[in-house]
Design goal:
Largest sheet: 5 strands, mixed
Bound molecules: 2-(butylsulfanyl)adenosine
Structural class: alpha+beta
Strand order of the largest sheet: 2-11-10-3-9
Amino acid sequence: MGEALTLPATISIMYSKDTTKELQKLTNELIKKKSSASIKDKDAWLLKDVLRFHEYRYYILNDPLISDFEYDQLYKELEKIENDNPALITADSPTQRVAKGLTKDFPTVQHLVPMLSLNNSYNADDLIDFDRKARELTSLDKIEYCVEPKFDGGSISLIYENDLLSRGATRGDGVEGDQVTINIKQIRSLPLSAKFSDFGVQQVEIRGEVLINKSNFMKYNEGLMEQGIPPLANPRNAAAGTLRLKDPAEVAKRNLEAFVYHISYYSLLKGKKIPVELTTHSGSLKLLWDLGFRSPEKEKKIFKGIDAVIKYCEQFEITRDNLPYEIDGMVIKVNDIALQEKMGMTSHHPRWAIAFKFKARQATSKLLNVEFQVGRTGAVTPVAKLEPVAVGGVTVSSISIHNEDYIKEKDLRIGDAVLIERAGDVIPQIVKSLADVRTGHEKKIHFPKICPVCNSKLFKEEEEAVWRCINIECPAQVVERIIHFVSKDAMDIRGFGDANVRKFYELGFLKDIPGIYTLDFNSISSMEGFGQKSIDNLQTAISISKKQPLHRLIYALGIRFIGETTAKTLAQAVNHLLDFKKYSLEELQNLEDVGPKVAGSIHHFFSNKGNIKMLEELEKLGLQLKNEKKELTKGGNLTGQTFLFTGTLPTLKRSEAEAMAEENGGQILSGVSAKLNYLVVGEDAGSKLEKAKKINTVKIISEDEFLQLVGKK
Ligand code: IVH
């Protein structure tokens, strides 16, 4: 026990199959050692290699082999060892990304080689023209091109010296940029060290792009909006802005990613020759990939002649939305570096490369009017009504403009020409008003002082940007609360839908949430468009929803700041929902992830007599206010087992299957890792299945086998 583990001498950052197996074995041994508290100082270097390997699996390959929890345990162990013995800390230790405190200034630094821009092209003719000039300059009949995505983020320049990341900078004016090394180190897809020396390279300057993927961007914007802060217009601004934040801990939270795509300079170690990899662009992308960087190695393609290049660019545009991050075009580069040097550059762009820009996702329109909508929490949101305009294949005529401060900050006026952007599947935004083309007839936007629906006075809390209608009987709020209650992630009452809720409310068939369960279907059947079949379906869906687990009901109530995760925490804390009546603010804050704001909101909800009456009514109507799972899970035969469902199951809905596993004591995981016991696969299972096949301990089963496990077959 307690022996230091030895690593094979052949370990390299390029992780061959054998090395991967070896590292995974070592990981398991370290995890075992950790649980018997016998990791020794001697293991520090090993821990570093193992952690780096798992960072690579997670951030570069997007294919983790261990769970986040296991990674964190090993990371904490390394931290502890380094704390006790600081001599073991090296600059490229995984712990050295973290930085506490605020950065004062970002010094201006000069790039080793100026960061040029790219010339743009928009269609096949432009590319044919580019190829003609390239052939003239090189006196060649056919040129070999390397084609790769044009990443839409903030550009960076990195210097590695003697294999260590020594500097990271923003583009700035192309000649000088801000030295933001501390923030760059927060990007886990950039290695802190890389074995350039294996290729004879002493110093290297690399170009790349920092991105925030669409899902993290949306999460970030949702967080901003929850706090009443206007969201950012696009992932590009979010990534570039994040790089300049003075708080590296905040940078780390935003989960930036980076692609590297160009080596702008390198010097060789004494006596070394230019490695063959660096004689072509595609070779340098491969070299970067092999050294642990995320380069477009998988996306790049090499073509002889421009025709195939054009085809690839056009094809890529069709599938651009399938990527998890934004790209705004393709970049076509002459592959041979000697030819690149021969062709040279202008003061603006290299002559050996060109960008093929995809169709714009920006467009201009006219701001015709502003309407004010009241949401379920009473927040009044201004919505810009626009002259309909196509942006990236979607017609936009209505855009939220968030709040009064946002309108002021952007100086929006009715009649303004406005620039609109729709980044991928992200909600469209107004980027700015085009003040230069104003006629003088534009009108200021006046924010209402009374609720546009119920005429109550609006209120704004200090430090909040949102005006609210605080009349909880306000018809707009009631309708929005019902819409939320029946929605898919809440009580999932199919066949209701926003339009029906509004219609039933307007006709007086539905007044409040309990009213859902006492709907008069005779009256509904007399309405146009309601056949017996749709009524039967609705009736069944309503009846099934009564059995939804408690956490769904809590989420469905639409209590401010209570998302699905907090709803689960709350559901697990009590035996009966009304137990919360007795909870103090302090007791609420003792629950996981419940801070003062959330606790205040829950307390407020359960102190309201009307809300209590509504919950009592719902219970009488047969809804589930008891935490049934608490009793069930104790004896569940899946206790301690973890599950994940993927693909379309033959008979069960995903949510039903998950609930079944949980009811029997099982736990649902969000991703495939060694922590997973069962992956239940349906039709069209994708990457999760592939990942699971690589982990021996994961059992891959069908729905049928799952039903047998839970005793339903
Ligand atoms: S090559 C001299 N490759 O696009 C080499 N640039 O609009 C010039 N960009 O400034 C850069 N993806 O920030 C190159 N695959 C890619 C790129 C890329 C995005 C950025 C880069 C450049 C800008 C020009």
